[in-house]
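User: I'll paste a sequence; please echo it back and then give the predicted structure.

Assistant: Echoing your sequence first, then the prediction.
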Amino acid sequence: MEETRRLAGFCRSLRWEDLPEEVRKRARICALDFIANVYGSLELAEVRAVAEFVRSLRAAPEAAALACGYRTAAPLAALVNGTLAESIEAQDGLRYGGNHPVSAVMPAALAVAEAEGRRGREFLEAMVAGYEVANRVASAVHPLHTLSGFLPTGTCGTFGAAAAAARLLDLDEEGTLHALGIAGYLAPLSMAEALMGGFTAKILQGGQGALAGVSAAYLARAGITGPPYVLEGSELKGGFTQITVRGEPNLERITEGLGQRYTILDMYLKPYSACRHTHGAVQALLELLQERELGPAEVEKVEVFTYAIAVVAVGKGLGENETFVSAQFSIPYVVAAAILDRELGPRQLTAERRSDPVLRELMSRVGVELDEDLQKVYPEKTASRVELSLRDGTRLVRQVDIPKGDPRDPMGEEDVKGKLFRFAGERDRRRLEELAELIMCLDELEDLGKMTDLV
């Protein structure tokens, strides 16, 4: 028991110099990946609308709304930047937690670090602590939390955001414990209905978790208290893991190997702007297209074979409530877009691209089916096979067992730089290169404003 307290103690004692070098490098790469997603998300009108709403509040200019041209209060900056991290569905993730910690943790850490005048090294320390908390809580309730109707990026991410903010506010162990307790009380419901229905409110889950976590830490500093057993709960059965899971959580996952094994090393990164369950199919298709030039008229049909959860979650079309969210969670859409554009990034999600009649017609020739052999190796492998039948009788086949970005086939620094340049569109290349270089030396940066000013 006392899982919450042990997490609080860990967060308080973490030191950058004590972290393994592979953890420190991964933290910097995750920060770079975050900025790539910020740029990509601003391609979407709905994201820009969120940023403009927050701008209209005219709050105190404490922290940057990244790439939006204004500053605002730290909790609101966390809200905007969390939305920017989440919206194009290219964020990092934990396969055995079903969550995307960057969307809540990174914006919370950056906003508070800026507001409090912290150095880059302190920001990275807080980020690693926040990832650890968000991932361990998510792992403890996975997959029952999602099956109970919640999206853990918002719910579990709130605890990570609070941990990161508490660290940057220099709260002691008791203060951090109260911040976590308050975070559980403020955490968003993050209902899975929004995602499954294709509603664009889904993009707010990371930002709302970041806002709640930052608020929780500041409230704890002000003397507000929260339950010190917020995760495990008490005999009253009101703890987070008691009320958000239909079944028994695995509480041992919260503290197992704490301080020895770092979950940031288990993160996957995404080269494409779509649900991770689509990535095997997209990668297989793009590999085929590298070997042979094809026009849409040459394609008779595309068959995608994959595992069961992928068929259920992303095997469908765009549905009646067609949005960029439903496109991100549709194998027929992303496969058709990839055939036409030879890529899958932010610009394949815009309203203009989604309305293309050629793309829509090509979608009708894409089918998704369960493959029992691929199901047998899930979740160890998230494999998909694409079988492309051409009108001249040619049949092209490619299978991807472990999509790019998985820790077993990781995206390294150069891969993430390439993603940054792709997602940044027409922005100045030399400025982007300077930004990437600065982020990869972030632990040496004395003034975080030098980074946020470049974004």
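The two ends are 43 Å apart (CA to CA). The chain has a mean pLDDT of 97.
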